[in-house]
Amino acid sequence: MGGVGFLYEGKTKIVEAIDDDSVILTFKDDITAGDGAKHDVMQKKGQMCSEITSRLMHYLNTKGVYTMFMNYVPPNKIRARKLKMIPLEVIVRFKKAGSFVRRYGGQEGEDLQSPLVEFTYKSDVMHDPLMCIEHLEVLGIVDRNTALKVIESAKESAKLLKEFFEIHNFELWDIKFEYGTDSEGNICLGDEISPDTMRLRKAGEIFDKDIYRRDLGNPMEKYEVVLGVCQSILL
């Protein structure tokens, strides 16, 4: 069978092809920040992030969003569609936070007038620089039509997840997505959806990787709470 075997190991995941059309993502217990400058290993992180990702992507699938998710393989693996990943991080912001505040000012948690989508180029060495659609076209990353499809999918996915978490009295401040194309060239949501890739707050408390970035305690305690919320989504 063609295309079977190890494909890639990143900071938090290992990707292995199991056939021509699907892969296994193994979620590691590693947690990083600052483009990998800060790095620790935390017990059960891979297990929690893989299950959270599975349930949230399954939820999006049921709402008509095309994601990589095929099935959850406990304790820390996902069987997923094999994608050719686009080297972009696609960030949807509902509130001002993090790098947005550092670049443009304002207060953490301040509402934006409407959801904002930002593209950054995936490069730890270059510290994920911001890109506009013209950058994507000129550098041959994706064409304008593909970029607009990604924006549409990202906004819809973020809206659906925001609504899901609001039911449980959480606020989704922002979220980072990654996209790829399947064997037929269709745009597909890939990678991961977990507290590693979003800002999630409840009554002033942080339930995401900002706990680790800011040395505010053990982030796994809050990740476990998020997992409990996501377990309301049946697989």
Automatic annotation (TrEMBL):
**InterPro entries in the record, alphabetically?**
SAICAR_synt/ADE2_N (IPR028923), SAICAR_synt_PurC (IPR033934), SAICAR_synthetase (IPR050089), SAICAR_synthetase_CS (IPR018236)
Q: Specify the pathway.
A: Purine metabolism; IMP biosynthesis via de novo pathway; 5-amino-1-(5-phospho-D-ribosyl)imidazole-4-carboxamide from 5-amino-1-(5-phospho-D-ribosyl)imidazole-4-carboxylate: step 1/2
Alphabetic keyword roster: ATP-binding, Ligase, Nucleotide-binding, Purine biosynthesis
Q: What is its EC number?
A: 6.3.2.6
Chain ranges of the SAICAR synthetase/ADE2 N-terminal domain: 7-226
Record's catalysed reaction(s): 5-amino-1-(5-phospho-D-ribosyl)imidazole-4-carboxylate + L-aspartate + ATP = (2S)-2-[5-amino-1-(5-phospho-beta-D-ribosyl)imidazole-4-carboxamido]succinate + ADP + phosphate + 2 H(+)
Nucleotide-binding found in the keyword field: yes
> What GO terms are given for molecular function?
ATP binding; phosphoribosylaminoimidazolesuccinocarboxamide synthase activity
The UniProt record lists the keyword ATP-binding: yes
Q: What GO biological process, any one, is recorded here? A: cobalamin biosynthetic process
Q: Which PROSITE patterns match?
A: SAICAR_SYNTHETASE_1
Q: Which is an annotated Pfam family here? A: SAICAR_synt
Q: Which family does it belong to?
A: Belongs to the SAICAR synthetase family.
Under HAMAP family, the record lists: SAICAR_synth (MF_00137)
- What is this protein's name? Phosphoribosylaminoimidazole-succinocarboxamide synthase
Q: Which gene encodes it?
A: purC
